[in-house]
């Protein structure tokens, strides 16, 4: 029997990705230490930083009001992402017109602020998903998979939202946000040896049936956010069902906090986003531990398929 090997797999979600920090806080309190990280977009940012042993409080501190900060650490503000055109982009009209901003500014920031910018030297394995815009195929950066590419460049590629950012060129290929191909890349975690995969997904649709006003009456941004969340959540759950059939010896714990009406660009809502991620994860992970989900992972038996744990109040008991 092998020991439990926990992977933390995180979705994108821009500022909503702050909820991932709350999920990791719950993991810490329950003694569940991830040994490898897989991320897309915001999830790649979290994995690149937390996976290098930057403490959670230091990461969260970057979103506190200036007079409340206690640490010197990464400060991922909107200005960190929105870069002016590079010289190469200016001399390529087609590329210049492919997006509003350059993601190279984020790449440069990460290159100067990450403790380690080499996948081969990281203390814990990190895998980052992006999409090759010309082939439409997912590309993974990490140990044994395009590992020569700097972490900063891979994460920038994974964060390259189409239309908002111009595709980023790496080794002669152009890449965009990894969520174009899939919300999560849990299969990479399994291939890397994980037998417990904690999925942190911030795209749970808003449940607002009791409100007198429909989301349709609250502006296009609410309709767009709800539609995107519904689409990506459906893709994620379908993908997990396939993975469960393919890898019956692996326990998948899906944590999808209800983030309500908090938007994708509202970093000033850091505290409630972190707390919602923390609360949902604490309940789901504690339930999984009580039901023996982590002990079952030791069996490594292809005949046993642990049931999926959806982290919403109505289905927490489905773990085990």
Short description:
By secondary structure, this protein is an alpha/beta fold. 36% of the residues lie in helices and 15% in strands.
Quick tags:
alpha/beta; 320 residues; globular; 12 helices; 11 strands; 9-stranded mixed beta sheet
Strand content: 5-15%
Tally the helices: what do you get? Answer: 12
Oligomeric state of the chains? single chain
Order of helices and strands: EHEHHHHHEHEEHEEEHEHEHHE
Distance between the termini: 20 Å
For the biggest sheet, the summary is: 9 strands, mixed
- Category by helix and strand content: alpha/beta
- Any idea what the radius of gyration is? 19 Å
So what's the overall shape?
globular
Strand segment tally = 11
Instruction: List segments where confidence is low: pLDDT < 50 over at least 5 consecutive residues.
Output: 301-320
Q: What is the average of the pLDDT values?
A: 82
Helix content: 25-40%
Commentary on this structure:
This protein has 320 residues and is α/β, with parallel strands linked by helices. The chain is built from twelve helices and eleven strands. Strands 1, 2, 4, 5, 7, 8, 9, 10 and 11 form a nine-stranded mixed beta sheet that branches. A two-stranded parallel ribbon has the order 3-6. Helix 7 runs antiparallel to helix 8. It is globular and about 60 Å long.
Map the helices and strands.
Layout: E1 6-10, H1 19-29, E2 36-39, H2 42-50, H3 56-61, H4 78-81, H5 87-90, H6 93-96, E3 99-101, H7 104-113, E4 126-132, E5 137-141, H8 151-158, E6 163-165, E7 168-170, E8 173-177, H9 186-191, E9 196-200, H10 220-246, E10 251-255, H11 270-290, H12 293-296, E11 309-310
Parallel strand pairs: 1-2, 1-9, 2-4, 3-6, 9-10, 10-11
Antiparallel strand pairs: 4-5, 4-8, 7-8
Helix pairs in contact: 1-11, 7-8
């Amino acid at each position: 029997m092998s020991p439990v090997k926990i992977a933390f797999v995180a979705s994108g979600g821009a500022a909503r990705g702050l909820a991932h920090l709350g999920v990791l806080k719950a993991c810490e309190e329950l003694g569940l230490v991830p040994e490898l990280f897989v991320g897309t977009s915001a999830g790649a940012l979290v994995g690149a930083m937390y996976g290098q042993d930057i403490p959670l409080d230091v990461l969260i501190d970057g979103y506190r009001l200036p007079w409340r900060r206690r640490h010197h650490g990464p400060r991922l503000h909107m200005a960190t992402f929105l870069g002016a055109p590079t010289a190469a982009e200016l001399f390529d009209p087609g590329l210049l017109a492919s997006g509003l901003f350059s993601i190279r500014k984020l790449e440069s920031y990460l290159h100067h602020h990450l403790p380690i910018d080499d996948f081969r030297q990281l203390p814990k394995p990190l895998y980052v998903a992006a999409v090759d815009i010309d082939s439409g195929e997912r590309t993974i950066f990490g140990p044994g998979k395009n590992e020569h590419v700097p972490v900063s460049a891979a994460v920038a590629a994974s964060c390259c939202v189409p239309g908002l950012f111009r595709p980023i060129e790496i080794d002669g290929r152009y890449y965009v946000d990894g969520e174009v191909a899939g919300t999560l890349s849990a299969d990479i975690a399994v291939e890397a040896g994980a037998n417990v995969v904690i999925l942190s997904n911030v795209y749970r649709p808003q449940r607002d049936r009791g409100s007198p006003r429909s989301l349709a009456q609250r502006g296009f941004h609410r309709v767009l956010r709800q539609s995107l969340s519904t689409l990506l959540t459906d893709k994620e759950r379908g993908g997990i069902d396939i993975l469960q059939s393919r890898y019956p010896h692996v326990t998948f714990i899906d944590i999808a906090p209800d983030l309500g009406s908090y938007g994708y660009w509202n970093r000033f809502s850091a505290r409630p986003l972190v707390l919602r991620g923390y609360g949902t994860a604490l309940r789901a992970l504690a339930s999984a531990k009580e039901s023996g989900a982590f002990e079952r992972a030791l069996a490594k038996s292809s005949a046993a398929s642990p049931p999926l744990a959806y982290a919403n109040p109505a289905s927490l008991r489905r773990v085990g």
